[in-house]
Amino acid sequence: MKSNKRNLAAYVYEDRLSRHVLSEQHPMRPVRLRYTNALLNGYGAFDDPSALVVNPRPVTREELLTFHQESYVDVVQRLSDGELIASAEIFGFSKTGDNPIYEGMYEAALLSTGASVQAAELIADGVTSRAFAPAGGLHHAAPGHASGFCIFNDPVIAINALRKQGLRVCYVDIDAHHGDGVQNAFYRDADVMTISIHEGPRWLFPGSGDVRETGEGYGKGFSVNLPLLPYTSDDVYMAAFDEIVLPLIRTFNPDVLATQLGTDAHVYDPLTQLALTTYGYEAMFERFEALRYPWLAFGGGGYDLDAVARCWTLAYGVMLGRRWPDVLPLGAESFLESDALRDGVVTVEDEMIIRTAAWADQRVQEIKKLIFPLHGIAT
């Protein structure tokens, strides 16, 4: 990898990424990307000397096939064009399920996936040391079928682009849902470490991500899972994060740190039950930045549009070295319900804090027993 001579933070986005609609009732609403962009623009983020706004390109077929089966890619294109395929459900698609068929879905998925690959290329080529592709982070898609609102698995394809250049990657997934598709892609790989912090599989899709899922073969010890109890709040979450995530990243010492920044662990998210606030998210973003590795960030889940825009605005601010004021810019009231960038006081009952802390500590100790010795980390 070329040295990072320019201290730029790339933002890979254009409005086309926010225009498609999965269905009128679907919780995944790409308009959240437009709100994030508008909020950042209101803060003057793109006028910062370190900001580099990049228009995305569609992913190529060759890049898609580094992970996805050609037959699956063909089916996505045919369904997108309006062809009726009796076996669509075999590939994860249906009219009313998690992955509805809609006109233009192939082109939309090509562009969001390409944005993530392009962000990876900007880092690998030394153009920038930090890059954010907010339309990406669709971590559930499998080689041959869609899953969990995800058609193509852009984190895997972007990581494959980095690996093609001989780079080792540590992937950290803070989405409330387990990053199963990415873990599965690299489960036997020692050049990619995957770390997922998520609501436990007992309570949330996709039902995987137990501590004992640690990798196989050469990849043993390179898949790490930290499942948490519902209602886990900032302090409990960050204590576990600091004990597990930070020492593993430092010990693995990657060429690139890739992070999936799903905001559905936020306390206001309607689909999940974790209780993070903007303060917990901002604390994680600051820790990622402080590690000083080239930093590739994807978007991910997030179904409270207000929380998505605010959290990802904080993320790109950290990449720029800027701390935005809590006072929202003029015009933000037209698309945000909140009256400040950061959350107000969020109260979690003492009994719940005790329960979630005890659970998290047990999982931390399991990881230290199962994973840390494999990497020579003292416990």
Report on the structure:
The protein is globular. The two termini are 33 Å apart. Mean pLDDT is 96; it is low at 1-5. Helix 6 links the parallel strand 4 and strand 5 (192-199). It has one domain: Arginase, Chain A (3-Layer(aba) Sandwich). The longest helix is centred in the C-terminal third of the chain and has 21 residues, at 350-370. The protein contains ten helices and eight strands. The chain has helices at residues 31-42, 61-64, 70-80, 105-124, 154-164, 180-185, 234-252, 278-290, 305-320, 350-370, and strands spanning 9-12, 51-54, 130-133, 169-173, 192-199, 223-228, 256-260, 295-298. Strands 2-1-3-8-7-4-5-6 form an eight-stranded parallel β-sheet, with helices on both faces. The protein is 35% helix and 11% strand. The chain has 379 residues and is α/β, with parallel strands linked by helices.
Key traits:
379 residues, alpha/beta, Arginase, Chain A, eight-stranded parallel beta sheet, 8 strands, disordered N terminus
User: How many structural domains in the coordinates?
Assistant: 1
User: Could you state the order of secondary-structure elements as H and E?
Assistant: EHEHHHEHEHEEHEHEHH
Which of globular, elongated, flat, extended, rod-shaped describes the shape? Answer: globular
CATH C-level: Alpha Beta
CATH-derived topology: Arginase, Chain A
Low-pLDDT regions: 1-5
Distance between the termini: 33 Å
> What share of residues is helical?
25-40%
Global structural class: alpha/beta
CATH architecture: 3-Layer(aba) Sandwich
Mean pLDDT, all residues: 96
Q: Please indicate the percent range of residues in DSSP E strands (runs of 2 or more).
A: 5-15%
